[in-house]
Design brief:
four-stranded antiparallel sheet, signal, AztD-like, five-stranded antiparallel sheet, Metallochaperone AztD, about 5% helix
């Protein structure tokens, strides 16, 4: 019997089978990707240690966007006529009652999307839509194919170059309709295009179109008179601004996570909470000074954050519809000057809120639970755009 047990144990080792049960451990990993305002580089930081993992060289200073899955980060280089793609190195597997996490080194993929003046990036269920203003064209591809280095590209053209946007919804693509009389001005509507390139139905009017976001199964697009809203079922309806709101409009939207809502700007010194399914769809929140940047908390669903030009970070309770805490972080960043001047940006990395301070070459870190400032992270140059990727999962 002892000989049999020994033989069985040895066979298990040869076959790579654990002789004893293998227990899963839990791992938390968060990474922050940071672009520089003036240099064509992207830093990858480990937020658990605050240390830099790698710096990637790109073609031009870049705006960063993460995919919904967090597996990829897109570096949109408007002045470089290209979009580079990074693998974040963090991925998750869904096993029903739990999720596995896989952590690898981040890397710059050997994949890029070339075209004149790329602008908007939109991910919807793994369909990536990239709009090129200088061509008036959209390139659509699947994130899974991009990660494999073999992106199959579907191109959707509009009638003229313009500052536009597109959203891929399965077989159809929602794409902005240019202003034919004044091509340099904002689009005037949304056109639906099928896989064959044919227009489906009429153009949906949306004067001064600018701003798009998803929350749950809803997609919203900001217009001068309200929001076009769709759940991808073929119906696109206008949600007009409430008459009780002051004169204004939203031009930037972000979608809630965990709670279904949208957060938009509304004039220079306010934001608006938008719940398309509520009778009281719009709730205006006045800010103490002009708004610089805002985002939602993907982990703590009831919170969103706004940074204002007086150097304060404000926490918004989206259920109560008000600012419930404020924290002074930086010197003032006036909104006077060019719209693209280097100013702070916000990202949420698990239990940390990170605010870039490009003129001081530092990232300010705030504990999301206590809303108190922690240790800063020094970063050379002018750290600007931020995206955070990560979470917790089991390892085996």
């Amino acid at each position: 019997m002892k000989h049999l047990l020994a033989t069985t144990s040895a066979l298990a080792v040869l076959l790579g089978i654990a002789a004893a049960p293998a227990f899963a451990g839990e791992q938390t990993a968060w990474r922050l990707f940071v672009s520089d305002y003036g240099a064509p580089i992207v830093h990858a930081l480990d937020m658990e240690t605050g240390k830099k993992i790698e710096t990637f060289n790109v073609k031009a200073p870049t705006s960063l966007y993460r995919s919904d899955s967090g597996r990829t980060v897109f570096a949109v280089q408007g002045k470089g006529d290209t979009i580079s793609v990074l693998s974040s190195g963090i991925s998750f597997g869904d096993h029903g009652d739990h999720g596995d996490i896989k952590v690898e080194a981040p890397r710059l993929l050997d994949v890029s999307f070339e075209g004149k003046k790329p602008s908007h990036f939109v991910d919807h269920d793994g369909d990536i839509a990239l709009f090129f203003d200088g061509e008036g064209k959209t390139r659509v591809s699947r994130e899974a194919d991009i990660l494999e280095g073999k992106p199959a590209i579907r191109e959707v053209a509009t009638a003229a170059p313009h500052h536009g946007v597109a959203v891929a919804l399965g077989e159809q693509v929602l794409v902005s309709e240019p202003n034919f009389d004044k091509p340099d001005e904002l689009p005037v509507g949304i056109r639906v295009v099928d896989r064959a390139g044919a227009t489906v139905g009429d153009v949906h009017a949306c004067p001064d179109l600018h701003g798009e976001a998803s929350s749950g199964n809803l997609v919203a697009i900001a217009c001068a008179e309200g929001l076009l809203v769709t759940s991808g079922d073929g119906k696109i309806e206008l949600l007009p601004y409430d008459r009780a709101l002051p004169e204004g409009k939203s031009t930037t939207l972000v979608g809630g996570r965990g709670l279904q809502y949208f957060l938009g700007n509304y004039g220079p010194s306010a934001v608006v909470l938008i719940d398309p399914k509520s009778e009281d769809a719009f709730r205006l929140i006045d800010l103490p000074t002009r708004r610089v940047h805002f985002t939602v908390d993907p982990v703590r669903a009831k919170f969103a954050y706004v940074f204002t030009e007086d150097g304060q970070l404000h926490r918004i309770d989206v259920v109560a519809g008000k600012i419930d805490a404020s924290l002074k972080l930086t010197d003032p960043y006036s909104m006077d000057g060019h719209w693209s001047d280097p100013r702070p940006r916000i990202a949420v990395a698990g239990s940390r809120i990170v605010v870039s301070d490009p003129l001081k070459s530092v990232l300010h870190v705030v504990d999301a639970e206590s809303f108190k400032q922690g240790d800063d992270i020094a970063l050379e140059g002018k750290p600007f755009n931020l995206v955070a990727v990560g979470g917790s999962g089991e390892t085996h």
